[in-house]
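Sample A.
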Amino acid sequence: MSQEPELTVYCHQDVIHLTGELLQRLELAGRQALPRVLEVAACPDSALARLDEVEVSFIDDATIADVHLRFMEIAGATDVITFDHGEIHISVETAQHHAAEFGNDFESELMLYMVHGLLHLAGHEDASDAGRAAMDMFQSSILKEVW
């Protein structure tokens, strides 16, 4: 791939109001995160390196729970689901709950999830302790740079 994929943010939920200004800010920060994520890609031929476009959709818990069950056969809502064809689904309700639980601000939590999804597209996995530690380190570093 000769250039970074185009990143576009969508809001497909009406449970938590996300302003147009916030969506634009998240999209800009996501675009700024792309080159950093590609620099720390776990796999040089990752899905992210081959994509022309990445779509980030902010959805509600009911929708992400449905996607979680249909595609991963896991019941219940989750924070982020990433598909190698360039879709990242983020639950705004889960972000709001986790932000309160972990003492983060809601907008930062949304951005964290976007970076997390991009890292998955770049080949990072968090199923092991070592993988999770690496992702946490990269997320923290990238978030400081773009948010």
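Sample B, a different protein:
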Amino acid sequence: MIPFDLCSPETGESLKADTPHSLREVKSGVRWPVIDGIPYLRTNRADLVAHTLKLLDAGETNLALEGLLADQDDWWTGPPADPLDLHELVRERDARSLRDAVRLLGWGRVGDYFLHRWTDPTFLAGLTLLEAHWNDPVCVFEFACGIGQYLREFQTRGIKVAGADVVFAKLWVARHWVVGKSAQLVCFDAGSPHWPIPQAPVDLVVCNDAFYFLDRKAEVLESLRQNAGDDGWLAISHIHNSDRPGFSAGRAVSAAEIDELFPDGLVYDDDDLTRALVERRAPHPRSPHDLQGVEAFSVVAGPGMRPAPRAVIDGISVPRPGKTLRLNPLYGGAGGHHAIAWPSERYEAEYASRATYPAAFDGPATLLWQGDLDAPDATQVRNRTYVDLPERW
């Protein structure tokens, strides 16, 4: 765990442990709730914060947790979670799967993306970006980490990790189904008056498939640069291009804005990163102005980045040896023959043309991966026909 020193998102005052379930501002005494080791530091939620603390102080931890699990971000357009489903999930969380959690939280089509993120081309593009510039970081912070897929990849390599997200439920799912207790997780808004982790220099700062949602991109980017310190670097992937309509909401940016935001950056076409993984080559950085037609940009920046990309062969883009991999859960079928069954028409429209795995496959349901990159099954590992999923997926 990375021991971040936290501060109030409203006043900037230092936060110190108050009780096992709360933090207190040093000067003002204002308190903030903590559940499962996850501080809830969202602004514009005063009533929810007060109610949560009241329940926690009264020993009603599960009821307090249910209230935070119902909280969503401002982009959410789906119906609110069913209170009975949340009650069931909290009560039975140790016996439930990740699929159960996503369903009971009411995440709908967004849940499809979380469950299958380990195999989607944008996730693989982010891994490629990281591997191409990898320099053996010791501590990694992921902003907008979701349920922690990237954090898990870092953990398997012995790296200390921390993650932040605006949705408490995502961090809670990360804690119980994906990354366990060793990750430092914090819930806060990017637009808070004060960045809650101001003095937290790490070796690497990651943000994937989220930067385009931000309103105050330049300010948030400056905070992330401060987190990376004088020697760290940033990997920010899948930033939607405003000049090309896409599937996601958010506030996409243009090539010119990428150039302005990242004067020290190496910029990539997200699709080229995915292809580089399958083709076992180095991705090709290009001028932002040569990428005006791409769907999404990816960028590395900062003093600690490698000056040139290396070939994507044997790093974080492939699982650790000794893992028992499972067949990509998008495959359906029996008797050893499997065909892709897309979870939704939207998911298919977004990813089918860029999928790295074949539409049909004949083979067993599991594979013991020994790490031999020249073995016949290495292609199926690299293209995510087989995937390293959490135990309780």
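Observation for Sample B: The mean pLDDT is 95.
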